[in-house]
Amino acid sequence: MRNKWTLILGTLLLGLAACFPALAAGTDQADARPVLLVVGDSLSAGYGLETGAGWVALLQKRLRERHAPWRVVNASISGETSAGGMSALPALLQRDQPKVVVIELGGNDALRGLSLAATESNLRSMASACQMFGARVLLIGMRIPPNYGPAYTHGFEAIFPRVARLQHTALVPFLLSGVVDHPDWFQADNIHPTAAAQPTMLDTVWPVLEPLLHLGARKP
Questions:
Q1: How far apart are CA 136 and CA 215, in angstroms?
Q2: 129-163: b or e for each residue (b if 16 or more CB lie within 10 Å)?
Q3: Is position 189 annotated as part of the catalytic site?
Q4: Are 149 and 110 in contact (CB under 8 A)?
Q5: Nearest residue to 74 (alpha-carbon basis) of 123, 36, 34
Q6: Which of the residues 78, 96, 177, 192 is marked catalytic?
Q7: Does position 49 have pLDDT exceeding 80, yes or no?
Q8: For residue range 60-99, what is the model confidence (pLDDT) as tens digits?
Q9: In terms of Cα–Cα distance, which of 103, 115, 187, 113 is closest to 144?
């Protein structure tokens, strides 16, 4: 009796697979999409925002609306430093096999007054690791308030274009361009942007990111 029901069940499953091949192939098709990996801090993790309101989530929505064959993996962590990102990156590259990596780190280094040389070294190492893995890199810059002193403030801002030049990466000079002029677009801590600022942040990143997506989507 058991063999009879096993045969019947097997026949039914084969019939369903033949009638609905898309059900079996759906997962493989999704996994086949090239991955865009975002490694950032709270500004990309969507700190203080409802799920789906951050600029990275809006990026996935834009790609979906434009039928772009990309899967966005947001590995951003609130409070993350460049050292933490560098430590986590090898496992992320192995896990997600990204074609494009967006690096948005360094702000927490500056808020803690960490060594500028160490921050630059970490960002360069991250960019190099991504490139050795075969991924294209977009580096997103940050600025800090002037109360840290002119030397540290200007030195920090100069890190990002220098890393981009030396590592031959794409660069968004300042993620909050167009946001800092709107004090009402910040949460009560005056550090993290509100949901109202997120579309502007995406529009700041998009013109530099879009060409990398076109290149990354090409088959080798």
A1: 9
A2: bbeebebbbbbbbbbbeeeeeeeebebbbebbeeb
A3: yes
A4: no
A5: 36
A6: 192
A7: yes
A8: 999 999 999 999 999 999 999 999 999 999 999 999 999 9
A9: 113
Token pair of 134, please?
């075969």
Between CA 23 and CA 92 the distance in angstroms is: 28
- Specify whether 42 is catalytic: yes
Burial class of 116 by CB neighbour count within 10 A (0 to 12, 13 to 18, 19+): middle
Q: Choosing from 67, 181, 189, 214, which is the catalytic residue? A: 189
Among residues 41, 42, 76, 82, the one annotated as catalytic is: 42
> What is the C-alpha to C-alpha distance for residues 110 and 105, in angstroms, rounded to an integer?
10
Q: In the numeric block, which tokens belong to residue 143?
A: 């600025």
Q: Is 78 among the residues known to form the active site?
A: no
Sheet holding 136-140, edge to edge: 71-74, 35-40, 100-104, 136-140, 170-172
- CATH architecture assignment, domain 34-216: 3-Layer(aba) Sandwich (3.40)
* Domain map (residue ranges) of the chain: 1-32, 34-216
